[in-house]
Amino acid sequence: xxxxxxxxxxxxxxxxxxxxxxxxxxxxxxxxxxxxxxxxxxxxxxxxxxxxxxxxxxxxxxxxxxxxxxxxxxxxxxxxxxxxxxxxxxxxxxxxxxxxxxxxxxxxxxxxxxxxxxxxxxxxxxxxxxxxxxxxxxxxxxxxxxxxxxxxxxxxxxxxxxxxxxxxxxxxxxxxxxxxxxxxxxxxxxxxxxxxxxxxxxxxxxxxxxxxxxxxxxxx
Length: 220
Hints:
Elements: H1 7-29, H2 40-52, H3 55-79, H4 90-109, H5 113-129, E1 132-133, E2 136-137, H6 144-158, H7 165-192, H8 198-219
Antiparallel strand pairs: 1-2
Helix pairs in contact: 1-5, 1-7, 1-8, 2-3, 3-5, 4-5, 4-8, 6-7
């Protein structure tokens, strides 16, 4: 069971899941209709492309996967730990995510696939950054695991077994934020197209500044 989560993790998890929901819906509504915040469907599509011998699609799906992986690897280089803790270089990772997302906007506006790859890299960086806390897997760019944990909690409640209420709240937090991000992102995409990504780019930059100020206050 999760013993305790600091307040900054709750707010950060919600904000980053909301950002991911916006990014993913932009990818899905865009010219390639490509999910970029997770790789399950992309991996399946890569398998289908290999089976059909479609070289262009093999390259495309491999590039999405490789970009996400590169972002996660960059997070590992920057943060150098899998445990969330004040003092780690999360601000640096968030600033990089912000810059990469801003760079993706004009490329996507020109329908260049490189924009999708940059968005996938940003999501890989974000997901790796907040991957683990106190033995609890925390993912902010996809919700399959959250729904799985939610289902387990429901099953335990039906059997009148102990339910980890903190984990349950965390699941509901991330699912709701990701969903709301998708709703807001889709609504805005209909009005400003790929410029929608400037909002999550700005939010991650703001999160980096907020984290830096929070860390500075604690150090005083």
